Fold this protein.
Amino acid sequence: MDYKALTKEFNTPFYLYDFDKIRSNFKALKEAFRARKSQIFYAVKANSNLSLLSMLASLDSGFDCVSIGEVKRALKAGAKPYKVIFSGVAKNETELKEALKLGILYINLESFEEMKSLEKIAKKLHIKARISVRLNPNVDAKTHPYISTGLKENKFGVRLDEAKKIYLYAAKSEFLEPVGVHFHIGSQITDLKPIFEAATLTAKLVRELNAAKIELKFFDVGGGLGVVYQNESEPDLNAYAQGILASLSGLDLTICLEPGRFLVAKCGELVTSVLYEKMNGDKRFVIVDAAMNDLMRPSLYKAYHAIEMPYNSGEMSLCDVVGGICESSDFFAQNRALPKAKNGDILIIKDAGAYGFSMSSNYNTRPRACELALEKGQIRQIRKRESFRQLIENEVGFLK
Ligand SMILES: Cc1ncc(COP(=O)(O)O)c(C=O)c1O
């Protein structure tokens, strides 16, 4: 890749995504589940660029959304409503109403209260709401605590006994139709056993519901498949599929997968330029033009991202790679061995395709980066850099 030419044309920082690689990840995952009916619902939150969603829609992907904004994004990108599901612990009345009107496949419920609220809305609209219930199976996903979601101390989902209550109520309701069951125990999972444990518990619930004459169609196993950022062991796709299929023996359900990170993390990089190099005593800092507002993961989770400087081959020494934001948590790497840097050097932060741009912000009144896609050897811009005007356009009521 000619990063110098890209930098000249688009300036830095920018995100660069490899759409062909995303496509091949999608196909590999689909292929791993070929033995059963399955549907991938890409987790939009991982990277919600419309061009990316539209490319996935062309592969027949569905979309897992956690706000009505994401639902509308997916539809705008060409998704069919029956390929969209709506999850999340805090869907409000307006969102539920809109989702029902849009006719999406199902809504993943996260509490009895939410079910009652949805039933009321469905009754008003004279629509029968298709629902699924998100279980909290209380299994430890063995991942970073901030992205672990399947333990009883986490806010997500409901306990098995509560889920049963929801299904029994919903099955009798004129305005609710239970069609699925859901779990998502966390993200960046590299040990698959907790996923299989959750699948087994969930399948047990399905069998109990069947015995009570409640027949579901969709078995939604969430996302969570981890990737290698540093030295993690890479989960095996076939083992993943086989483990889930094994838990479902005797049940005829469509398996719904909600991968985010697995599809896009390794297919994106954040390209930034060195502004300065600075020594504070014997501590070396490489200061770049991207910052934590562009990529939060290192600040938020102390996440590791590999860093490359493709045009530098100088002597290596330890340094911190930092941005210009007024927070000491604004770093991309700490004590990392990198070559000596100077103004204008290009630095690439790898594996930033998931939870990169989508978590970015305008903190410190910084415009969000532009985004580029590489597809069949061609580069195209899929999002422009924000302008100062766009940053302030919604601010009203001040004295000029
Ligand atoms: C309900 C749900 N599904 C899917 C995902 C995607 O997870 P991942 O990117 O780890 O595959 C998330 C992410 O947190 C989620 O909350």
The chain has a mean pLDDT of 95. Residues 43, 45-46, 64, 87, 184, 187, 222-225, 258-262, 354 surround pyridoxal-5'-phosphate (CB under 6 Å). The chain is about 30% helix and 25% strand.
